[in-house]
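Researcher: I'd like a candidate sequence for this fold, 167 residues long. If you have to choose between options at a position, lean toward the conservative one.
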């Protein structure tokens, strides 16, 4: 396993989330809460699902136990959500930066939100966290387009080009 790979993903994740937040900043709360086509039926609910998921996974990675549901809307107001999202992205980067290659293959024992016990290597968990973000950011992108926002350029290749990963 390569810790630098996941460190890059943590930074890409923050960068892409910042773009989503900037688009959401152009909308009012009514637009964020309006019904939209996606698995979670509003921008607010989709964003909350992502943040709840990340919060749960980061807690598990730290050995903490939290009690949240994946459809919980813990940050119904955008400004509170935005602050929590930015804080979690910083915490996720710090956590990933603290892992070395050996730590990435260590198994983690945890329980999911249904109380089922699992053991999963940390690199698989981190791959899931970043893939999950990408999956639902795609849904958010569609929801933002339906709210009148311009298309977001959040493909990873743009992040690479802008941040010196490619020459």
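Model: Candidate sequence:
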């Amino acid at each position: 396993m390569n810790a630098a790979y996941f460190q890059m993903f943590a930074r890409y994740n923050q960068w892409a989330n910042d773009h989503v937040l900037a688009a959401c900043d152009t909308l009012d709360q009514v637009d964020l809460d309006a019904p939209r086509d996606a698995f979670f039926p509003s921008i607010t609910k989709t964003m909350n699902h992502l943040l709840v998921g990340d919060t749960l996974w980061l807690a598990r990675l730290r050995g903490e136990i939290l009690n949240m549901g994946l459809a919980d809307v813990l940050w119904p107001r955008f400004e509170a959500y935005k602050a929590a999202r930015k804080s979690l992205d910083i915490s996720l980067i710090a956590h990933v930066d603290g892992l070395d290659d050996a730590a990435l293959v260590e198994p983690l024992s945890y329980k999911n939100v249904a109380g089922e016990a699992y053991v999963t290597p940390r690199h698989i968990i981190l791959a899931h966290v970043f893939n999950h973000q990408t999956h639902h950011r795609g849904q958010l992108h569609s929801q933002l387009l339906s709210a009148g926002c311009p298309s977001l350029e959040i493909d990873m290749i743009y992040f690479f080009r802008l941040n010196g990963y490619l020459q």
